[in-house]
Amino acid sequence: MKIVIVGAGAMGSRFGFMLKQAGQDVALIDGWDKNVEALQKDGIIANYNGEEIQQPIEAYHEDAVDPELKADLLIIFTKAMQLEATLQKTQAYTHNETRVLCLLNGIGYEDILRRYFDEDQIIIGNTMWTAGLEGPGRPKLFGDGSVNLLNLGKSDAAVSGAHEVIDIFNEAGLNGVYEKGIFYLIYKKLCVNGTMNGLCSLLECNMAELGATEANREIVQQLVSEIVAIAQAEDVEMSREEMIAHVEECYNPETIGLHYPSMYQDLIKNNRSTEIDFINGAIADKGKKYGIATPYNDFLTRLIHTKEELLGAK
Ligand code: NAD
């Protein structure tokens, strides 16, 4: 099976590295010139739990993909705002039975993917793996994780396609899980990303520092209440109290509290645009669709966009 990963940043490199190390036939596609040059020259040079491991890998610039390349499994790991432009180019290296797996943070990707692929080809999910980048072609890969996924279409072929991906992931140590309640998990993760990402970026603090303030509590509770209301409108059962408690676990300095969320890394450290439109912005959009008021998510989205403009984020 030919596995093509489009978006070879931190996460695309992690999955590419682990799948290739397990003996899979993997190619990476990316639009960042320096990254593609590094991958083509030296392969992936991973800081893998503190050990440097070099893994040669097939890699292409998104504008110079081998016309012979055809993906049996396409894994998407661009940033959310790059997704649509990326999908417009994937026709060249996919076929009618290519499985397309999207593991981006945020919500609503299934609606975008349906415009480019048959429902039976689409697999959605989320992942607890993490990754960072120390430079082009140099991912920093620490810790453990898992991948929860579910076929969007209901045919037998769709179900077996998802199971095939899980088997491949498990052989590579990526810990795949077939998850019928995938939308619950996606919204649960959104409760964390929809609070910690935007607030820590605006306030320039880590999660433990945010949690130590009194005034944040009402904001976090309102953001989560709106997210849960949208989830319920989409028939995803979740409890507001449980989700608030889940978010508050992030404050613990002995677990992940000292961590700066990925949006902080993108915007404050690296001056890059954020995925806010697919996190809080997506909640505000769905609020309009369902007639549910989402003022906190709407306001947070606008504040992050204002900060992006002030910082000249690209
Ligand atoms: P990333 O920023 O590392 O890579 C995404 C794309 O941006 C790639 O095409 C990459 O080449 C490009 N890019 C990265 N740095 C760049 C730079 N300095 N200049 C120009 N282009 C650059 O993103 P990621 O962390 O791999 O995330 C991909 C998706 O996975 C996102 O939706 C993210 O929210 C999600 N996700 C990330 C993590 C994580 O720990 N990183 C965990 C779970 C989910």
TrEMBL record:
Its EC number is 1.1.1.169. It catalyses: (R)-pantoate + NADP(+) = 2-dehydropantoate + NADPH + H(+). One of its GO terms (cellular component) is cytoplasm. Gene3D superfamilies: N-(1-d-carboxylethyl)-l-norvaline Dehydrogenase, domain 2 (1.10.1040.10), NAD(P)-binding Rossmann-like Domain (3.40.50.720). Keywords: NADP, Oxidoreductase, Pantothenate biosynthesis. Residues 185-308 form the Ketopantoate reductase C-terminal domain. InterPro entries: 6-PGluconate_DH-like_C_sf, 6PGD_dom2, ApbA, Ketopantoate_reductase, KPA_reductase, KPR_N, NAD(P)-bd_dom_sf. One of its GO terms (molecular function) is NADP binding. Pfam families: ApbA, ApbA_C. GO terms for biological process: pantothenate biosynthetic process. Pathway: Cofactor biosynthesis; (R)-pantothenate biosynthesis; (R)-pantoate from 3-methyl-2-oxobutanoate: step 2/2. It comes from the Bacteria. Residues 3-149 form the Ketopantoate reductase N-terminal domain. Belongs to the ketopantoate reductase family. Catalyzes the NADPH-dependent reduction of ketopantoate into pantoic acid. This is 2-dehydropantoate 2-reductase. It comes from Aerococcus suis.
